[in-house]
Fold this protein.
Amino acid sequence: MIKKITYAVGAVALLFGLWGVYIRLFEGEQSANYGSYIGWGLWVAMYLFLAGLAAGAYMLASLDYLFNIPQFKGTGKVMLWAALVTLPAGLASIGMDLGHMERIWKVYLEPNFTSFLSLMVWGYTLFLILIVISLYLAFIRPEKSAMKVVMWIGLVVAILVAGGVGFLLGGNAARLFWHVGLLPVQFPVFALASGAALMLVIVGWFGPKDNHVNRASQLWTLSLLAVVLSVVKLYFLVADFTQSLYGGAPNNVLAVQSVLTGRYWFSFWIVQIVIGTLIPLIVLVQPKLAKNDFIAGLMGVFLLIGYVAARLLIVVPGQVVPMLPGLAEAFSGPKLTFDYTPSLMEWSVTSAVMGFAILGILLGMDYLLGYLARFTEAKK
Amino acid sequence: MLDVLEKQDVLVRLHEDLQRALKKKPEERRWVMVIDLRKCVGCTACTIACIAENKLPPGVVYRPVMVEEIGTYPNVTMNFLPRPCMQCDKPPCTEVCPVTATYKNEDGVVVIDYDQCIGCRACIAACPYGARTFDFGYTYTQGLPMLEGAILGSKTAAEYERLSNFEYGEEWARNGGHESPIGNVRKCHFCLHRIKDGILPACTTTCIGRATYFGDANDPDSLVTELINTSNVVRLKEELGTEPRVYYLV
């Protein structure tokens, strides 16, 4: 039942999203709410989220293929598949954000390697190739050393690309809210945390029903992992905000205030903290609840929603404070504003991306992975 | 005749300085802009001149003037801060560009190759001065009703809007499609297309208070060199180490 509902949610999301994709591709970016002062909005945040999710999923696949942890036996393929779906979804999201997406080839053929953005495109392309090779080897020869070597390389690349995204923001000295030394350290943790949340959903809602004992054990281990990572993430957040407020640099304080008490208070307190952190923490530390398939999956969804909010609340507040006093009022025109809430068209495109990711993961699990397993077995 | 009327307009001196600088090799000159904040009256003529010169569409601005109100009545005053691109010697915007679409040219001016720019806006995020804006393809006549039979009106205005601009010495048409510079980041370039022809930037010639100066800081005889070597010179956000080429006299 839950799978049918998820399929329906994915399909509806994709259908609603097609409208936004059409508007974006054929009418341009005027109906987006990001602009010249807040240049990066929802789509960039979703890119960070989905690319982080791919890295996290890959990290979790390594529990099966690299570290041979018994509870995760057999979950590697699904997590690799999830990485293979979420990474292109993230890249699609950032692609829609480009003013001239038809020129993306220039990043490959005419790159500027002093640009972290360029390095990230190359890094994610390499990561995508590694995911494909890993998945291929997972079917053909999962026990062989080639698989181990590729998975080790992939794991290191996953950590580096996740950290690189943190550097993309953290390396910007002009924006104090982002210019936190630990951002490149935090992002791989965020990635792993979101991977664990995704795995909770996959195992809890869509895992094989035939081995209930093993699944309860998987869910409990995943719950503990998700809880620990959530607490670490919360610690990072408290440390960041306390340091910023105590330091008192005006631009940084204003940015933090926009999150805590300003325009984005609801997204922060209700979505990120209550729904995305506290409820899952309280539920998942209770073994009885954590081992319940439906509840564990639902907490995974809550955690993922919280991580989306967290990404938005890193990307946007870093841009809400005018670079110079009076800049906001100095000249008026469309998109010359420091207020940002995603437009319907932006939500619609994100809906398409999420619909693609949901349906992609489900269809892969239900049809492709089984087909490939049978195909490779037959070949053997 | 009053003495003041016999004085040479500062633009004449700046023009002579410019002609002298243009005889040098590009890499030997150092274009700088000096803005005397004590003379700026906040008329925004520079902003408008820039828009007219570069045919900037709605939402794109190269030189806004920021207004700061100081004090409380009756001890109140206004400060005006025109903000062109700082043309930093160590620009944070160029190194983040994934395709080298924005870079310092041989004159040391930070330029944008519109045909190369992918529109990622990383340079907008990196600029500490908010000096870059994105061209979303707006027109001033967008959504206005057309008045049939009128000699002048939105139709004529729309036709004017579609005329090309000539930034960087190239023709950039606005035909209603998605051709560059639509979808690109845009910024002040010190009116390079005018400088090339020996004409001062539009903001400089238009300033009614003669508060904006432009010239070659490598020329010891230029007015800008004279001005930036005084004690009342500041640059914005020096602590970031960007080495701006725009100097303010305070």
Observations:
- Chain B touches chain A through 48 residues (CB under 8 Å).
- Residues 10-22 of chain B form the longest helix (13 residues).
- Chain B has a mean pLDDT of 92.
- Residues 43 and 208 of chain B are 8 Å apart (CA to CA).
